[in-house]
Write a structure and sequence with these properties.
Number of strands: 16
Shape: globular
Helix content: 25-40%
CATH class of the largest domain: Alpha Beta
Mean pLDDT: 91
Distance between the termini: 48 Å
Radius of gyration: 21 Å
Structural class: alpha+beta
Amino acid sequence: MEKVNNPNQQASFRPIVGIDLGTTTSAVAYIHSGKPDMVPSPHNKRIIPSVVLIDLQGKVIVGEDARAALIAMPDRTIAAVKRKMGSTERISLAGKDLLPQEISALILKELKSYVDTHFGEGEKEAIITVPAYFTDEQRRATKQAGELAGFVVERIINEPTAAALAFGLGHIDEDRHVLVYDLGGGTFDVSVIEMMSGLLEVKASTGNSLLGGEDFDWKIVDWLAERMLEEHGVDPRLDLRAKALLKGEAEKIKMTLSTEESMTVSLPLVTVQNNSPVGLLVEL
């Protein structure tokens, strides 16, 4: 929906936005002049990390600043909460016990602030995407998170279906079957879509809600930790800050190895043993 500046129209105008609440990053978009457009953050970022921090003053911080605090304040920061959606397990964050949907609501509330800045105050409808294999409990938790954030949640739709719709809008006159792979930060979905006479029908969907970039990162963390165990007899995974440091390094390694054959990992200080710094120098 397009922005309305006429104050007399505000009462009847309720924008609809689409939200990708991702395991590692999240984003919000709307239809502008017949085409989708992103709603940027105040820093003009189109996507934000799905990370929540409750700082020492009790203030909630979401996005890049929260992700930067993962190493320094691991007990006050949470990432990849999407993987726990639908669970009744409470998550300890800065001394508070929160349900996964309550933490997800903080991410969605941050996105809603961008939408409010763009469209002005008032009710906003939202369509939120979820992995194809999310259970009813996980879908209900996602809807609840949206409502807690202040959205009127119009619909929950599957992520590969959303991808197929985006493709189909540009190929509306074609009859074909489309295979959609969605490999994200935390989930891996695949769907078969049939396009016929302008209609799109999902013929089959399957997936794994615990397979994605996060898992690749942790595999690298394990590999680095094993090298430190062999060399120094210390497991950095037992230290929250060291574990977070290796996780951040794993993301950088993964990006570098997308274009390079190998990478030298040089970390002078990962953890401390007997009051001495323990580092890591290895080629991956």
